[in-house]
Design a protein that fits this description.
This protein is 61% helix and 13% strand. By secondary structure, it is α+β, with helices and mostly antiparallel strands. The chain has a three-stranded antiparallel beta sheet. It starts with 10 loop residues before the first helix and ends with a helix.
Length: 107
């Protein structure tokens, strides 16, 4: 595979691409869906909800956290995860901009 050309694109374009890349796995979508249905939870709660092993869930949580889609706070010996609303705003604003551009171009 060739070298990355990400430096050829804007910071905003790279940011959105990284968010979508982190969301491009169905297990991560399921984790986000679950976190949206609860206020916050620990990894064990997600393991009880999804048909995946704890190490797999932890890896997906790490990817979502690295992309800033979720936040984790330490509570005793566990990490409590929740959705990062600022990142959801970025995604929402991106789609809003796309929708606005489409309305002005489509018949």
């Amino acid at each position: 595979m060739g070298a990355s050309k990400s430096e050829s694109f804007s910071v905003a374009q790279n940011e959105i691409a990284n968010l979508f890349k982190a969301l491009s796995h169905p297990a991560r979508i399921a984790i986000v869906d679950y976190l949206l249905s609860v206020d916050s939870c620990i990894c064990g709660d997600i393991v009880n909800e999804l048909p995946l092993a704890q190490p797999t869930i932890s890896q997906h949580l790490k990817e979502l956290k690295n992309a800033n889609i979720i936040k984790g706070t330490i509570e005793g010996t566990a990490i409590c995860y929740c959705i990062n609303p600022e990142t959801i705003d970025i995604i929402e604003n991106h789609f809003s901009m796309i929708r606005h551009k489409l309305k002005s171009k489509c018949c």
